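Risk register update: the risk of archive-format incompatibility is retired. Evidence:
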Amino acid sequence: MIRGVIIEGLSTAGKTSLFSAIKEIHSQASNVEKSIIAISEHYSQVLHSYQGVLRSMDKDEHIQLLIRHVDYLELQYSWIDSLGHTKPSNGIFYLLERFHLNHRAAFSNSSNIEVLEKRLFRLNAQCVLLTLSEDAVEPRFIESRSNAWKSYVMENHSTVTEACHKFLEDQDQLRMCAKQSLIPTLEINTDEADWNSYARQILKGLY
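Archived output:
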């Protein structure tokens, strides 16, 4: 038995906060998987810091990275399945942050990711897309972090309005990618930042 959640969304939508909340609430639940595999966006996103310098992976580099993660999940599932255990507690729960939709959004040709999605579908994956409403974009995306973050966000935009508009455009692109994906996707608006409530909603839908 294996199942998992893939958390997607733009920066400041709450992926990392929800990631932590799901791990905590799952660990406190009874009669659920004792084995958890949690891979944060630092090990799956397109943009990485190499020796302190930001660099984007090309498509082949990124798809190979995602393949390695899915290979590992399949190996662990094959192992637990070969043991013949049927109790939920002996299964595997996995949690991925910024994964397949990240690839679909970054690269125009997604034929390779569709193969990965078929594998994830067989591993009972469910995707959660975190979004913000228009009114929440400026306080969350522009103002919620440090001045260094605000400077980074505004680097390629002449006004705050322009930056927020770009956020909403990118968010709509993720919605489109989710519709194209083979993985069932639940969209959750995170304006209220109620991470524990969102986590309970997601886990309740899994079991």
